[in-house]
Amino acid sequence: MKKLLLLTFLMIGHASSAQKFTLKGRVLDNTDAALPSATVLLLQPKDSSLVSFGATDTQGVFELKNVSRAEYLFKISFLGFDTYFKKIAPPTDSDMVDLGTIKLKPASNELKEVLVEGEKSPVVIKKDTIEYNAGSFKTQPNAAAEELLKKLPGVEMDAEGNFTVKGEKVQRVTVDGKEFFGKDPKMATKNLPADAIDKVQVFDKKSDQAMFSGIDDGKREKTINLQLKEEKRNSAFGNVMAGVGTNERYQAKGSLNRFSKGKQLSFLGMANNVNSQGFGFDEYMNFSGGGATQMGGGRIMITTNNTNGVPLNFGGRMNGMMDTQAAGLNFNNQFTKKTEANGSYFFNNLDQNISRDVTRETFSPRGSFLSDENTHQETSNLNHRGNFSLDQKIDSLNSLKLTGNFGYTETVQNERGQSQTFSPEGLLQNKGIRNATATGNVFNLNSNLLYRHRFGKPGRYFSANIQFSLNQNDSKGQLDAVNEFLNRPSNILKQESEQDNNAQTYGLTLSYTEPLGNRMYLETNYSFRQDLNQVDREVFDLESEQRELNMALSNKYNSDFLYHKAGLNYKVNREKYNLTVGSSLQQSKLEGEMLLLDTDVKRSFQNVLPTAQFNYDFANNRRMNFNYETNVQEPTIRQLQPIVDNSNPLNLYVGNENLRPAYMHNWRLNYSSFDAGTLLSFFGMITLNYTTNAITNAQSFDENFVRTTQPVNVDDNTMVSAFGNFSFPIKKYNSRFTLGTNLREQHTVNVQNDVENDINIRSATGNIRYSYRLKEDFEFSLRADLTAQRTKSEQAEIANQLFFNKTYAGEVNYRFLKTFNFNTTFDYLVYNNPDSDFNQSIPLWNMSISKQLLKNNTGELKLAAINLLDRSMGVNQTANSLYVERETLNSLGQYFMLSFTYTINKHLNPMEARSGGMRIFR
């Protein structure tokens, strides 16, 4: 089969390369200087549609290969110069057309005989911005913006819908330069229609302070800006979809956008029970109080049991069964030239049903032993969240910016579980059954007020930043458990718990920059922060319907973290590079009071925190960055409380009041390049992290293998990693390859029964992606992700571990008879552990066919078959320095769905079908 596919591609490529020629030349300005990165286009004379494109190199040379023999319209464009046009005839006795030297004339304001409207180059380089013309990259009808983005050269999307550009994760997606539902990138990529986008701009967004002061501080956010088509900016547009399926599956979603000059208003709504989300879970967890919410006898909704470890594969799927209803509103309004406001509100109700089977092999000097756990968890989560921003330019020298976010979450959770543990000899040591319920609500508010002042002397600059945050977390829980042991009597637990957590944070940061001349600056800064926490946790034993306070499990705790940090930085800014070196002195003080134990905690720490940053911009969109920074990881309140959490009676957790802060050194060097002419992109990064007084979770086991976890300090932890990504096209075969690799080695220390053990974890990941495109009707792509990890221990009693995780995937898109579209995807997931003879594979196959309907193709009827092979199981494999764990979870099985989508105001873009073209009037 593989040989047949290869032969087919070679035959297609050979046929397409027959009777072709190469077009080359050199572009200069009127002073005979080379013009690098000038855009060259080859167009059809009939309708000016795009045939081929490229860009000049540093010497102004261009070359377009494999051009079919026909007449064309040739075009060269460069900012500040008149556009150059020339008709090209195919050579009669050679395979080369040499246009020689072409000189562009400076742009003139005189009226030309030729009027060019809507010029669209596929890729344009504007200093540090890569701009893609969306019309040059065809998507399926009614596709979301993410379908457009993953077709762009240099842009990659992973299985969870996260984007990277040249290997760097995209942190922000804006619409016409404005925030869209806060900083969650997926809100825009998953909900805006692709056909509403005119251009996609990729750049490194500078910090607010750098943009105000004009002094580059080296801080960047990888950003994608979706620039809408002009007709969409002054109208309403969007789409609605509804679908019904077998097994009572349903899906409905809609978006409506009303944009006008200086104003944006967007509405989103969705409801489904097919595990489809239109938002990012990172953002969702932030507004839900994070993953560390403790709710009495229950567990959190989403768990990741990977302390100090490396997850090998999370399958790229939403496991469990999820029922979602969500709606949101986003607005941007420029009231005046000096006043701008934006904000959003988003609501979602998420019901999740998870059945989980976990097998864990724990490493021990006494020998490795096994534990099995089976749980069924039902969670209902009601979440409200919002963002707001007000930017007020007082005058040319002063500005104020208020930003913030808020969230409120109500959670109800029920969990039933049973577990058992076996000794290294295979004897049953303990088993337990538990039922836990928990209800809770979380409210949080974060706000930030930034004042900036620019003095009359260029480079002299002052800013003041005030922060305030509030978090309130109230919960109630009930635990019923029966535990049996080999060498001691069984115990029965029937408990209720109530917990109130209240936290406030106050902060102030002052910064002053003094110019030293020759674009050199001295920055002084001071910051203050105070974290106040009050914890009131009461656990009651229920006996004969009477509640008795359990002092060992209850706790009332007040704490005050106080931070002072003063620093000095030296900055150098040049056209090609900027440099920052400096250091800070941080003093932190902890005062805590455990009321029930009548114990006080008083700790103070002092740390010197050096920093260095160097950025260098080469020619032709190549960049190098070096960063060195140090920071202090303070223990959390939960880690410091010496109180037992028995949510799982066979797996206890207890804090450690003697924890010290961890001190971390982080080095990072990265290099990126992108060639607009050849569309070659490369990104490489090397990171080194070294931590002293590292905080790790120690584990101890009693004679019945009941596990107790406690955070402790160890001497050090070292991690080094190298990442590379290379992407290149093969125009002769209409193909593109992307190759990537990630190597990682980590040295860490685990502690088990008070014995330290050095662990080395080494992992290697490789991935390859291939895509083939025949005109605009057929697309084919393949993907392979391979991961291997080996864990070695210094103790001979602990066996070394080797794991392999593999993902193979393919996708086909085919458009036929003008209005029909066919799509199929196939994923093959393989999990393998040779040491334990574990081998699990999961094939996932989806297929759909759709038909465009109604005037201007505003309607689409689609029939989709999901999970055709009916594999209703998800697998996770996790390894760290203490154990290896395999987890299987329930997932959606096979279903079929019929859906209808209607596009609102699609007729606003009647020229949409002529992607990437232009119109020339004479």
Name of the CATH first level of the largest domain: Mainly Beta
The whole-angstrom Rg is 30 Å
The main pleated sheet reads as:
26 strands, antiparallel, barrel
Give the terminus-to-terminus CA distance. 53 Å
State the helix count. Answer: 6
Number of domains: 2
Which blocks of ≥5 consecutive residues have pLDDT under 50?
Answer: 1-18, 110-119, 282-316, 908-922
Nearest-integer average pLDDT: 81
User: How much helicity do the residues have?
Assistant: under 10%
The tally of strands reads 50
Q: Strand portion, in percent? A: over 45%
In terms of structural class, how would the helical and strand content be classed? mainly beta
Quickly give the CATH architecture of the largest domain. Beta Barrel
- Coarse shape: globular
What is the CATH third-level topology name of the largest domain?
Maltoporin, Chain A
Protein name: Outer membrane beta-barrel protein
Domain Outer membrane protein beta-barrel: 453-802
Main location: membrane
InterPro entries: Beta-barrel_TonB_sf, CarboxyPept-like_regulatory, OMP_b-brl_3
